[in-house]
Amino acid sequence: MPPTTVAEWGAGHFSDMDSGIAAVVGAAIGMLGGAGGGWLTVVGQARQQERQQRIDQQRRLEEVRREAYTACISASKRVSARWWRVAAQLRTGGSTPDQWEAAAGEAHAAWAPFSTAVASVTVVGPGPVAEAAEVLRHALYELDQAAVAWHEAAREAGHGDLTDFGDRYMAAVTGKREPGRIFQQAAARH
User: How far is CA 75 from CA 69, 113, 119, 122, 137, in A?
Assistant: First the structure.
């Protein structure tokens, strides 16, 4: 009579299984378990590496941005300080056109690093900080143009006591303060 229960069926069949087959089946099960565990390890390591790469990229971007923002702030202050020196000389009765020219040359030389710094901020972003840098650049351009006009008029007049030009310059000085503050705040947030 054929076996009617699992126990009866197994008793007749599994008892005949020899130890070699049992070893092969056990090895296969072990190999599948090992392969599955190894695959899970590889997948876990790949995910961890991807996470670490994203963290490293973010950290590097933050570092590059911080450097660009700092360079922009420093360069903007150099431009302002150099033109402030020109303005002080133009107001001072004892200064000479040669002194004005030397100071104006320093101010002009300060513009290129500032322009480069703004371009760097524009590249590394993000958008709100790049926009704030452009507004600051425009404000400093207005200051630059007011100072250049004053300097040129003083050279022609032979003195720097030119109220209209001094007033235009001071308005530009006042006009650049808010864009400078806004840029610094935007840089600090990002």
Answer: 10, 6, 12, 15, 11
